[in-house]
Amino acid sequence: MSRLLVGLKLAQSHYLSQLHKYPVATKAVTSGFLYLISDSLVQGIELSRDKDKKYDFKRSMRMAVFGFAVTGPLFHYWFKYLDKHFPKKSYRHAFIKLTIDQVVCSPVFNFLFFSGMGILEGKSKDDIVEKLKKDWLTTYVSDCVVWPFINFVNFAYISSIHRVTFMNVCNIGWGAFLAKMNSSH
C-alpha cells in the first residue's frame, strides 16, 4: 500500500476516533476548517479575475470562526434533536426532517450567518439589518434549492454520527456561496 493511502487511512482513523470521543469539538473544528477553505476558494476566483485585489486573510478567518463557533455545534445539536423526534431511518422521516430543517433551521441559520459575520466584521446594527434586507431572502431561496436534496441524502443514508461531517463536505460549495454573498456590497 502506498504511503499516501496509509496516511489517509491513519488520518481517517484518527478523525473517526475524535468524532466519537469529542463529537462537538471535532465537528466545530471541521466546520471552521471547511469554511476557511470555502472562503479561500472564493477569494482565489476573485483574485484570478482582479489582479489588483489581495487575499483577505481576516475575511477567511472570520468565516472559519463562524464555522467553528456556530455551524459545527449548531448542527450537531440540531441533527441530534431531529433524530430524537424522528428516529427512523426511513424516507418518510428523512422527508419530515428535511422539511423541518428548511422551514425552521435554514431561515434562522441564514440570519445567524449574516448577523454573525456582520458582528465579526465590526459592522453597526444598522449595517447588519441592511445586509439582511439585501441578501437574506436571496440566500434563503437558494438554500431551498440546494439543501433539500443534500439533506434528504443526509437523513436517509448517512449515519447520525457522520451527518455533520457529510453536511460540512457539501458545505464547501455552499460556504463559498455564503462567502460570496457576504462579500457582495
- Radius of gyration, taken over Cα atoms and rounded to an integer in Å: 17 Å
Output the structural class: mainly alpha
* Residues in helix, %: over 70%
Count of structural domains: 1
Number of helices: 6
Can I get a quick summary?
With 185 residues, the protein is mainly α. It is built from 6 helices and no strands. It starts with a helix and ends with a helix.
Could you characterize the architecture of this molecule?
One of its GO terms (cellular component) is cytoplasm. It is found in: Membrane. InterPro entries: Mpv17_PMP22 (IPR007248). Belongs to the peroxisomal membrane protein PXMP2/4 family. 86% of the residues lie in helices and 0% in strands. The chain has 185 residues and is mostly helical. The protein has one domain (3-183). The termini are far apart. The mean pLDDT is 93.
Task: List the keywords.
mainly alpha; 86% helix; 185 residues; single chain
In terms of topology, how is this protein built?
Layout lengths: L2 H19 L1 H27 L7 H29 L5 H30 L4 H33 L5 H21 L2
Helix pairs in contact: 1-2, 2-3, 2-6, 3-4, 3-6, 4-5, 5-6
